[in-house]
Amino acid sequence: MGSLETGISLKRDNVFRSSSAGRTERHPFSQRPRSRFSRFFLFKKLDYLQWICTMAVFLFFVVFFQMFLPGSVVEKSGASFDEDMGGGYGDLNVLKEMGVFEFGDDVRFEPTKLLEQFHREARETSLYSSAFNRTLQRFGYRKPQLALVFADLLVDSQKLLMVTVAAALKEIGYEIQVHSLEGGPVHEIWRKVGIPVTIIQTCDKTEIVVDWLNYDGILVSSIQAKGVFSCFEQEPFKLVPVIWIIHEGSLAMRSREYISNGWTDILNDWRRVFNRSTVVVFPNYILPMIYSTFDAGNFFVVPGSPTEAWEADARMDLHEDDMRVKMGYEPEDAVIAILGSQFLYRGLWLEHAIILQALLPVLLDFPLDNGSNSRLKIIVLSGDSTSNYSVVIEAVALNLKYPSSIVKHKALDGDADNVLRMADVVIYGSFHEAQSFPDILTKAMCFGKPIIAPDLPMIRKYVDDRVNGYLFPKENIRVLTQIVQQVFLQGKLSPLGRNIASIGRRTARNLMVLETVEGYASLLVNVLKLPSEVASPTNVAEISPKFKEEWQWHLFEAVSNGTYMNSTLRSYTFLDKFVQQWNITQRGSSASVNPTNDVFLYSIWEEEKNIEVANARKRREEEELKDRTDQSHGTWEEVYRNAKRAVRSKHDLHDRDEGELERTGQPLCIYEPYFGEGTWPFLHSSSLYHGIGLSTKGRRPGAEDVDAPSRLPLLNNPYYRDILGEHGAFFAIANRIDRVHKNAWIGFQSWRATARKVSLSRIAENALLDSIQARRHGDTLYFWVRLDLDPRNPLQLDFWSFCDAVNAGNCRFAFSEALKRMYGLNHNLDSLPSMPVDSGTWSVMHSWVLPTRSFLEFVMFSRMFVDALDVHMYDEHRPSGHCYLSLSKDKHCYSRLLELLINVWAYHSARRIVYVNPETGEMQEHHRFKGRKGQMWIRWFSYATLKSMDEDLAEEVDTEHPSRRWLWPSTGEVFWQGVYDRERHFRHRQKETRKQRSKEKIDRIRKRTHQKVLGKYVKPPPESNTTVAVETIAESN
After folding, report:
1. Residues 259 and 267 sit within 8 Å (Cβ to Cβ)
2. Which of 296, 473, 986, 1017 sits a CA distance of 20 to 30 A from 216?
């Protein structure tokens, strides 16, 4: 396991398995030996004499060990009992150090991989921040956004924990939104805390969808919320940090059944969810070990939970005497429960033997019943119901000379709560150094029972001796006997013991709240990679004591907690339904396809698909070459004739869908770039809109969307697809635009605008179309997503201040460097294109409309700008993923800079800028020409300047064929006058060649030698005519 450093190994894992085998099966000899002597026997090559000596030493230690068995000690006189106990325990420590006994000290969970990842990321961030020679700034204009996702809003202890944690996180600066698959009574509690709640659906249902990119992190509670992971496994939500909080052990128990039944598909489906989680959090150190089947190296523990206190409160109404009668005890009996570690290890029986040995003198202090039996009853609570540990306890009790009716064994997974509820005193008899306070000991304290425990560091941290519990030194077991004698007076619990139990109950009710709150706050700091405009949360020390000292019980007082008793049952019911649904799905798939032919059919499908892809690519290349050869760039008449010829030659007009036919006749087409299945619910299906997929994978089935990578192969490179973002769709559409776009106006709208509910309404669409057709504003940039209303800009900053805020304070520097490289300026460019602070605002989120001709001019400018950015940042960003426009590793780097680029170009190229209200369609012109005088850089952004630069770059590519890495030729069409001249000359030569061949053919025909006619055939007249002529001649004669 990636996360278990020295945790439960394969040998030790057997203690968590349901097995009815004996001790030899749980600890076979072939497992890794634990003692030095076993390792000596197994791994040293010894001759016969050495074996004899070794066996002699072994027998000596067997005798030595027998001297310290409880049975031999009991037979000693009562006068020397205390001395033997003290000395004997000290000798056991010696044996423990020698490796003869072990008490589970190596059973530990350490999230090694996760901690190493946190340290490595922090080290890399610090290293690259200093390597850029640029100061990275955090502005903190908005709060970090968190989403809490639940399967339901029913009342249980998990909701109590999450409400407490959420209230504390909100106080240190987090903004939180709750999403749930089902409603419930806790909805009102979240409202009281001031956290909004939304009822959502899984991603296979598109009625209610969420843009998960709005959140900096997501916390998912319970295994029952598994369905929501279908959203996080889709692009573009795959990289959103997800913290999965698991409190149940039901899935770990059922995983044994899945393994035994060979249900590997179900196991793999759950592993997929565990692998998607950034961190899987457990409330104790037991759960990550029993979930080892699903460990992907991302397990983590935040200790603390109100579960034990909640369960104890739910059971407090049960009458104690009734439980005693049901379990075979009398109300007058004094019941002592001995608890142990939840781990099973080879020294466990010895711990119980030591505790039972210490309780043996206490028998004399209890009266006898009518059957001459002692009123003292001892229950050893350990193991599970399928193990045979009760045999071990019976053997230990027999050796200690206990009467047969006193010592009994109960399994932890059976009547643990009932045993704790009816016990008078609870003794924690494990000497295992636990990593957190034992949950079962917490539950005993919540039941109001006085506890007696060894003074281990983790127990001593929360238990004050003789204040809220009793502690005894593990080096001196005699103290345990004295404590028990003080707790009971004349066979009854003493008043001091009752008072200590009452204080202990109040302590345990809010145990480890501070550790839980601080644990989640610290985990979020390590997991979340906050953008530069997001404020860092304040220190945990600034949280109010009311959130760190107790769970938020008061919020749940008015809500019935009866539903909690079914929480465990609900988790098992959910797993049963999941398996049933899985079986139905499998039967359906097996009925449609023969399982034996799955591999064969899949291979045929793959082969056929590859052939179709290859043929389509070859056909597309041939068409592009043919069109490139035939298309004229001379006069508009030639272009028009060639375009009409191309349309007639396709003969595929009948294959177009209705949307494409409608788009052909309208003045505007708005393209919606998207990447991944998670964006599908936010895309429009009307004829005004046209989807453009940034990846061949994840395209909408049945939709005639534009395949951007096929139009621009650069987008097949994941690096440039991510770093360009939606700007890559501009390059794809502009590349030979006449083949895909035939409208006078072109627009783009981000799918995130639809998610934020700022997309164009039907009224706004009609208003925009009317304005375009009426030509009210001329060459204009229409936009409808405002900068001053952007959630990233709550302070309504000006253009350059906002750009700096979302780019780690280096937007101006990056823009300046790109312009210098783009225009070839050697001197320092101290000033930037001015973006004035007036009553107007700017466009964000790539949601705007332009004339098609102006769009091509903008793409011409942005291609050179992006190329300059790439030259400036590629060498640092590509290998490391770090750039000075982000505080952490960021594959999108300068995409936020490109989001604002349209504003700079539109303002300084003298385009009108008009805002369209997305709801009402009302239009308002911003940054009017009168206010731009003396501020526009028209010479730098004019069409003549940009066209000249574009042709210079195209000429360099066409003539010099540079071998260096160069992005510009890959972002679109490379064309200059020389290309046109060369193509025209080539076509002229082809025409002359055809004329020459035709002329030569005619000359050859003319120069052929013709043979003279040898005779002439005269067709004879018909017979009837001949007869008539003969008769006529005869008569005349």
Report:
1. yes
2. 296
Parallel/antiparallel/unpaired status of strands 689-693 and 668-674: parallel
* Domain-located, residue 610: no
Task: Name every residue whose Cβ is closer than 8 Å to that of residue 47 and which is 6 or more positions away in sequence.
Answer: none
278 and 380 inside one domain = no
- Domain interval for residue 158: 140-305+516-535+544-556
DSSP-derived 3-state class of residue 287: helix
Other beta carbons less than 10 A from residue 822's beta carbon: 18
* Pair of tokens at residue 272: 């997929």
Distance CA(123)–CA(126), nearest Å, equals 5
Asked if 378 contacts 359 with a C-beta cutoff of 8 angstroms, the reply is: yes
The per-residue pLDDT for 364 is 81
**Helix (H, G, I), strand (E, B), or coil: what is residue 749?**
coil
Q: Give me the phi and psi of 1005, to 5 degrees please.
A: -65, -40
Written as one letter, the residue type at 727 is H
Give dist(CA 530, CA 887) in Å, integer.
8
For position 208, which CATH number holds? 3.40.50.11720
Would you report the helix, strand and coil content of the chain in percent, each value rounded to 5?
Answer: 50, 10, 35
Residue type, 29: F
Same domain? For 678 and 771 the reply is: yes
In SS3 terms, 851-918 reads as: EHHHHHHHHHHHHHHHHHHHHHHHHHHHHHCCCCCCCCCCCCCCHHHHHCHHHHHHHHCCCEEEEECC
Other residues' Cβ atoms within 10 Å of the Cβ of residue 498 = 15
Amino acid at 119: H
Q: Which pLDDT value is given to residue 207?
A: 62
Structure tokens at 355: 């505790």
Q: Domain boundary residue among 527, 556, 585?
A: 556
297: which residues sit within 8 A by CB, 6+ positions away? 1, 2, 3, 113, 114
CB of 513 closer than 8 Å to CB of 550: yes
Residues of the chain scoring pLDDT < 50: 1-51, 53-54, 56-101, 561-565, 592-602, 627-633, 651-655, 1026, 1028-1030, 1032-1034, 1036-1037
Position 827 scores a pLDDT of 67
338-386 confidence digits (pLDDT tens): 998 777 677 788 888 899 999 988 888 887 766 557 888 999 988 777 7
Handedness of CA 86, 87, 92, 98 (dihedral sign): positive
Cβ atoms within 10 Å, residue 619: 10
Give φ, ψ of 769 to 5 degrees: -65, -40
Count of structural domains within the chain = 3
CATH number at residue 401: 3.40.50.2000
Q: What is the DSSP letter of 175?
A: E
**For residue 68, what pLDDT is reported?**
41
Output the CA angle 899-902-904, nearest 5 degrees: 110
Residue 714 has which token pair? 């650069």
Q: What is the structure's pLDDT at 63?
A: 43
Q: What is the pTM of this model?
A: 0.80
For residue 676, the number of C-alpha atoms closer than 13 Å in the C-beta half-sphere is: 21
Same domain assignment for residues 343 and 299: no
Q: Interior CA angle at 148 toward 143 and 154, to 5°?
A: 140
Q: Identify whether the C-beta of residue 537 lies closer than 8 Å to the C-beta of residue 173.
A: yes
DSSP letter string, 76-89: S-GGGHHHHHHHHH
Burial 447-476 (b: 16+ CB within 10 A, else e): bbbbbbbbebeebeebbeeeebbbbbebee
Helix (H) or strand (E) holding 850: strand 848-851
366 and 245 in a common domain:
no
In the prediction, which pLDDT does 277 show?
96
Reference 209, options 792, 846, 761, 756; nearest CA is 756
Task: Provide the 10 A C-beta neighbour count for residue 701.
Answer: 7
Q: How many CB atoms are closer than 10 A to CB 929?
A: 10
| Cβ–Cβ < 8 Å for 807, 896 | yes
